[in-house]
Design brief:
By secondary structure, the chain is of the alpha+beta class. It has 10 helices and 26 strands.
Length: 535
Amino acid sequence: MRVIKLKKSDDIAAVIQIIKDLKDREVVFEFEDGSPLLTSSSNLKLMKKTGEVMGKKVRVRTNDPTGRMLAIKAEALDGEAIAAKVVTPRPMPSRMRSMDSGPRFSDIRPNTRAVAPMRMPRAAVESPYVRSAPEQVRPVKARRSGNFSKIFVVTVVVLVLSVFALAVLLPTANITVYARSEPITRDTEITVDKSATSPDVSKMVVPGQAISREVSQTKNFPATGVKNVGTKATGSVQLYNFTKNTLTLKSTTTVLLANGKKFLFTKDVTGLRPTATIGTGAEAEVDPSSLIPPIAIVAQDPGEDSNIAANTKFNIVNAALGNQNVYGVDTAALTGGTTKTIKIISQPDLDNAAASMTNSIAEQAESDFNQENSTSDIKILPTGITKEVLAKTANRKAGDEGENFDMTMIARISGLSYNESQVKDLVKQKITSVLSDDKFLVDKAEESASASFKSLDLARGTGVLSVHYETVAAYKIDTENLPKILAGKNANEIKEILLTKPEIDRVDVEFSPFFVNKAPKLNGKIYIHNKLSQE
């Protein structure tokens, strides 16, 4: 269970978005006292309904008494509901003294004073040369009154029309609904066939094109071989032959081993007769007269490590001799071995250079071909290419001294190309055929396609392409009846209504002019804009 504390600034749209984004199946929202969302049970009902649509259990927790009552009404309160308290109305205070409503003395006292009417002189009334005052001012007042009436009527009409225009004609609502979207991934196999003339979604086949060209390259490579050109240790050994036969040891087939190093005779050894002894048992000694003079030897390789101390035993290895007891001992130390190394071209250097150039030529052929077709979607892959080396040569041979060398190679590159757009369209058609009715593939959405040939038969001009494709699918939103449903609703109500739909991810609402706070009812100026949530 997930517990989320809400702030007073959180509106119902933000809470609905949290419910949609949560992976938990049960969530409890804690409200602060005085949260605007606790002013109406419709907010709590909307939260609960959204959770049910998304398969989640939504509960409310608050210490606000009004909020708890609304949560109980919405059946969303977490824990036991608190029974509503009965509130006894406070009694009205009794009137301590009634007001004196009797008539005042001045109201009932008769007015005993009479005002005598004013009288005009008889001569003034009867004079034929004097007009009455009403006859002189009546036309001017009538004209002024008529003009004022007209101005008043026009002003009222203008005000009424202005109010009508402001209240009915001008208000508009722009409502943007963002449809939920999700990535779509497909792995499939498509046959590339040079005999095909057009893509076929039923057979998953696209046309291919066979290519063949000769490519040559010359590159320089570093030498990594090392050769010791120092001096070899020399000396001599006294040979002992404890066999019953006189032996001949060839210098070309005999090796002497000591301290892990190899040594050679400087000439063939002949007449190596058996070594005799004087005395018997533990007192037996070699008879010097039975020995031949010491034989000169030289180290097989140069280096200081071939300098051997005196009285060292040398085992003699000869295929014809076998394991018979024949050996030598140096009566004096072997000396003269020194070390000096130089760089040489080794055979592995030549082999690695040839392999590198074979791959490099294939990459060059692929790059040249794709560059030639850069304005089209024709593509050739490394897995769709075969390489045949026609000739290769290096300016130095193995064992030559040097820091680097050049190699030139000529190769034939053959391959099978295809139209990448046709492959993508084929995959999209396949996805669309199995996509549910409430979804669609987004046009011009970010897409990616990677491919490699699983098998290739250049003789027949066919190959099987393994394709990994990624794009975006979005949910369809029916906006036809939304203006009727949303007419007269404020921004929060519009969001509450729309966010209950699982296909809608979020909603933006804008009213104009500035004084409008509800969608218009009469003029039909409710505009619904459908966008993707990722835009």
